[in-house]
Design a protein that fits this description.
This protein is an alpha/beta fold. Helices cover 40% and strands 10% of the residues. It contains 11 helices and 8 strands. The strands form 2 sheets. Strands 2-1-3-4 form a 4-stranded parallel β-sheet, with helices on both faces. Helix 4 links the parallel strand 3 and strand 4. Helix 2 packs across helix 6 and helix 7 runs parallel beside helix 11. The longest helix has 25 residues. The chain is globular, with a radius of gyration of 20 Å. The two termini are 37 Å apart.
């Protein structure tokens, strides 16, 4: 997906990793590295994958996330220590197309069980500017003016923001855990079923919560919510494309101002791990309010909840307000 590469040294990343590992749940340990825990060791690429591993694995897994809390996932560069942890782990759980450095490291690692979430559900193409590619031709199809990669081969990776697709991934992860660690297969099966049930409940909350609304249109800083919009009959209009750091063109800003006026848009959404400058500028120019719509790429002290479900329910509340849902 991106690639906004910030050249952080391996030493610095290793230091961050040393401080950050073990912050996920009790399944993790501050001192135990992947491979020497006595548990089924899973290295997850970023929070949505780590969350699945923890919920499905329960007490039988030790989960290490390659992306630390507060770190924008697209910026991740794998350190030497993280590469070594991959080689010692029992399984790697990742989402191909989101973090190129992770894709490369896992592809080259000898790890026995490699679980690609992109293969466990269907990925679709969502326009780099919310379906406006036909107006802009191939302007954003490959690289923007900053050289960021916008090809996104394989489709939009933000599948976890659709509870139905996320449940499909959970079922696939559960089966992979059962196969890789058969001694605990019954527990993995039960934990997967419980998680899928919770995701179905979340799906129903979104369906009922957004059923009666004044408008279908919402504005976001980047096009992370295409699957969610598709699932619930909404229209996402993104300031930028799938890369959250892409600057919008002047023509796009004018187009969004027109859309906001015609469709009764009240809110410009921004997210917790990316600057809100562009959203606030657009909101100020159009007389709109701003609010958070969290893509749940990581949980921090600024998140509106302590886990995936709490943050997604906060997203629902924000959408209901913005769309005038009754």
């Amino acid at each position: 997906m991106n690639v906004r590469r910030r050249h952080i040294s391996a030493v610095a990343l290793t230091a961050v990793a040393a401080l950050g590992f073990g912050t996920l749940t009790a399944c993790s340990s501050d001192s135990a590295a992947a491979g020497d825990t006595g548990s089924f060791d899973v290295v997850a690429s970023f929070y949505p994958m780590a969350f699945l591993a923890e919920r499905i694995g329960g007490d039988h897994v030790h989960v290490t996330s390659l992306t630390q809390p507060g770190q924008e996932p697209h910026d991740l560069e794998i350190s030497a220590r993280q590469t070594a942890q991959l080689e010692e782990a029992d399984a790697a759980l990742y989402l191909r197309g989101l973090q190129p450095s992770v894709d490369e490291a896992i592809g080259q690692s000898p790890i026995a069980t490699k679980i690609d979430a992109a293969e466990l559900t269907t990925l679709e193409e969502h326009g780099t500017e919310a379906g406006h590619d036909e107006e802009h031709g191939d302007e954003h199809a490959h690289e923007d003016e900053h050289g960021h990669d916008h090809d996104h081969e394989g489709g939009d990776p933000h599948i976890w923001l659709d509870p139905v697709r996320y449940a499909e991934v959970a079922e696939g992860v559960g089966k992979a855990f059962q196969k890789a660690d058969p001694d605990h297969a019954a527990d993995y099966r039960a934990n997967t079923a419980a998680l899928v049930k919770d995701l179905k409940t979340l799906d129903e909350k979104f369906r009922t919560g957004l059923a009666n609304r004044k408008t279908d249109v919402f504005l976001t800083t980047h096009a992370a919510f295409g699957y969610l919009a598709e699932r619930y009959g909404l229209t996402e209009e993104a300031i930028s494309g799938l890369d959250p750091d892409t600057e919008p063109s002047g023509a796009r800003v004018k187009e969004l101002q027109k859309i906001a006026k015609e469709d009764g848009v009240t809110t410009v959404f921004y997210e917790t791990l990316v600057s809100d400058r562009t959203a606030k500028t657009l909101a100020g120019d159009t007389g709109l309010r701003t609010d958070v719509l969290d893509p749940v790429e990581g949980i921090t002290d600024h998140s509106r909840g302590e886990d995936y479900f709490q943050v997604m329910e906060a997203n629902l509340t924000a959408l209901r307000t913005a769309l005038g849902a009754r």
